[in-house]
Amino acid sequence: MNKEKEFEEAVTKVLELLGEDPQREGLLKTPARVAKALKFLTEGYQQDPEEILNQALFSTSNDEMVLVRDIEFYSMCEHHMLPIIGRAHVAYIPDGKVVGLSKIPRIVNVYARRLQIQEQMTEQIADAILSTIKPKGVAVVVHARHMCMEMRGVQKINSTTVSSALRGLFKSDERTRNEFYNLINTPTPSNF
Ligand SMILES: Nc1nc2c(ncn2[C@@H]2O[C@H](COP(=O)(O)OP(=O)(O)OP(=O)(O)O)[C@@H](O)[C@H]2O)c(=O)[nH]1
Ligand SMILES: [Zn+2]
């Protein structure tokens, strides 16, 4: 049996266990849809973050902070396979190399589209940038809502979880760290 069929049969089984009739009209295509959706939501397993970053590395003499903030992402927690909905802020201080800007949200997606815990995802993003761009420092802050804490379980709909990973100058130099936190907390101008 091919993998797709196997996947669809597993979803059909889940529907049956939920007391549903997988043969009713509305559910006929559901196993195939679920398989396709889950494949998309976990496509990060098939992607290599270093390869993505290496596609666009440019030499530079600039050593000022580069920050891409408010990168929205959707992930799934590895405990309940329920959505994690969040925003990531990613900054680094170049040391001879900058990366194509679009590659930063791409790296966020690579790690978000796996089964995750937020703290691990935050560190993975920082470490991929650190090992590839080799900057003077990297900072990643992630704000997220966990549906396993909202739709079920403790049911706290207004709580967000904040995690951070600081490397190099962001860890050792308070001024750099403060500049980063000020920049991510500055509201986007209303006429932007
Ligand atoms: N640290 C961390 N924990 C997470 C994350 N996503 C979900 N969790 C937690 O993982 C834990 C799993 O705990 P268990 O007690 O095994 O699971 P549970 O019985 O479903 O727990 P409740 O959610 O408290 O009902 C829960 O406390 C979740 O809130 C995450 O990204 N980071
Ligand atoms: Zn969870």
From TrEMBL:
<feature type="binding site">
    <location>
        <position position="80"/>
    </location>
    <ligand>
        <name>Zn(2+)</name>
    </ligand>
</feature>
<dbReference type="InterPro" id="IPR001474">
    <property type="entry name" value="GTP_CycHdrlase_I"/>
</dbReference>
<dbReference type="Pfam" id="PF01227">
    <property type="entry name" value="GTP_cyclohydroI"/>
</dbReference>
<keyword id="KW-0547">Nucleotide-binding</keyword>
<dbReference type="GO" id="GO:0006729">
    <property type="term" value="P:tetrahydrobiopterin biosynthetic process"/>
</dbReference>
<comment type="subunit">
    <text>Homopolymer.</text>
</comment>
<comment type="similarity">
    <text>Belongs to the GTP cyclohydrolase I family.</text>
</comment>
<protein>
    <recommendedName>
        <fullName>GTP cyclohydrolase 1</fullName>
        <ecNumber>3.5.4.16</ecNumber>
    </recommendedName>
</protein>
<keyword id="KW-0554">One-carbon metabolism</keyword>
<dbReference type="GO" id="GO:0005525">
    <property type="term" value="F:GTP binding"/>
</dbReference>
<feature type="binding site">
    <location>
        <position position="77"/>
    </location>
    <ligand>
        <name>Zn(2+)</name>
    </ligand>
</feature>
<keyword id="KW-0378">Hydrolase</keyword>
<dbReference type="GO" id="GO:0006730">
    <property type="term" value="P:one-carbon metabolic process"/>
</dbReference>
<keyword id="KW-0342">GTP-binding</keyword>
<dbReference type="GO" id="GO:0003934">
    <property type="term" value="F:GTP cyclohydrolase I activity"/>
</dbReference>
<dbReference type="InterPro" id="IPR018234">
    <property type="entry name" value="GTP_CycHdrlase_I_CS"/>
</dbReference>
<dbReference type="InterPro" id="IPR020602">
    <property type="entry name" value="GTP_CycHdrlase_I_dom"/>
</dbReference>
<dbReference type="InterPro" id="IPR043133">
    <property type="entry name" value="GTP-CH-I_C/QueF"/>
</dbReference>
<keyword id="KW-0479">Metal-binding</keyword>
<dbReference type="GO" id="GO:0046654">
    <property type="term" value="P:tetrahydrofolate biosynthetic process"/>
</dbReference>
<keyword id="KW-0862">Zinc</keyword>
<dbReference type="GO" id="GO:0008270">
    <property type="term" value="F:zinc ion binding"/>
</dbReference>
<feature type="domain" description="GTP cyclohydrolase I">
    <location>
        <begin position="8"/>
        <end position="184"/>
    </location>
</feature>
<dbReference type="GO" id="GO:0005737">
    <property type="term" value="C:cytoplasm"/>
</dbReference>
<dbReference type="InterPro" id="IPR043134">
    <property type="entry name" value="GTP-CH-I_N"/>
</dbReference>
<comment type="pathway">
    <text>Cofactor biosynthesis; 7,8-dihydroneopterin triphosphate biosynthesis; 7,8-dihydroneopterin triphosphate from GTP: step 1/1.</text>
</comment>
<feature type="binding site">
    <location>
        <position position="148"/>
    </location>
    <ligand>
        <name>Zn(2+)</name>
    </ligand>
</feature>
